[in-house]
């Protein structure tokens, strides 16, 4: 199976390099130090104008807790309503409750608001208590994809659970490996995981910008 490549981009420059390198989709966010938050509307607008490949937007107002106040939840709803009008291709978010489980009520409300645009449940999945149970909850909420390193720092470290998730998902949802995915290990991941999408920042130095050659290498190994 030929798999596709999504590049996580923390700046517009990375998004343009991702497209130039042959990526199939850009996940746009900002603030690499906290794992990504909602990018500015101005950056989204520029990206939409300059990209011809698919563009999905991370929605995350407050870093890596993934537990939101009522006011933050209202911001997320407003984000979706506003961005749907900009012609983007989907959203990336994930809400947990105080016990570390999937907040099915709030996630489902956002997925329904985003319809018909597809939604990805992001690496909040890597903080849940029971990942196999969480998988079923996320499917029930209507998400189309889960971005995960299977509760490890990198996808390679989590490869056994990733394989289990792919098997249990049984084509009901896409399991998209992310976290330390690079050209040096993507072939190993692909051999083990029968999944249609892989996720990488393609950053190979201490910067916050994707490396064009790395994007090209990643893409070539998925062809």
Key attributes of the depicted protein:
223 residues, 8 helices, 37% helix, single chain, alpha/beta, eight-stranded parallel sheet, TIM Barrel
Helix-residue proportion: 25-40%
Q: Can you tell me the residue ranges where pLDDT is under 50 for at least 5 consecutive residues?
A: none
Tally of alpha and pi helices: 8
In total, the number of domains comes to 1
Structural class: alpha/beta
- Straight-line distance between termini: 9 Å
Percent of residues in beta strands: 15-25%
In a nutshell, what does this entry contain?
The chain is built from eight helices and eight strands. By secondary structure, the protein is of the alpha/beta class. Strand 3 (54-58), helix 3 (70-84) and strand 4 form a beta-alpha-beta unit.
Could you explain how this protein is built, in words?
By secondary structure, the protein is an alpha/beta fold. It has one domain: TIM Barrel (Alpha-Beta Barrel). The protein is 37% helix and 15% strand. The model has no long low-confidence stretch (mean pLDDT 96).
Strand and helix layout:
Elements: E1 4-9, H1 12-20, E2 25-28, H2 41-50, E3 54-58, H3 70-84, E4 90-93, H4 104-114, E5 119-121, H5 131-141, E6 145-148, H6 159-169, E7 174-177, H7 186-192, E8 197-200, H8 212-220
Parallel strand pairs: 1-2, 1-8, 2-3, 3-4, 4-5, 5-6, 6-7
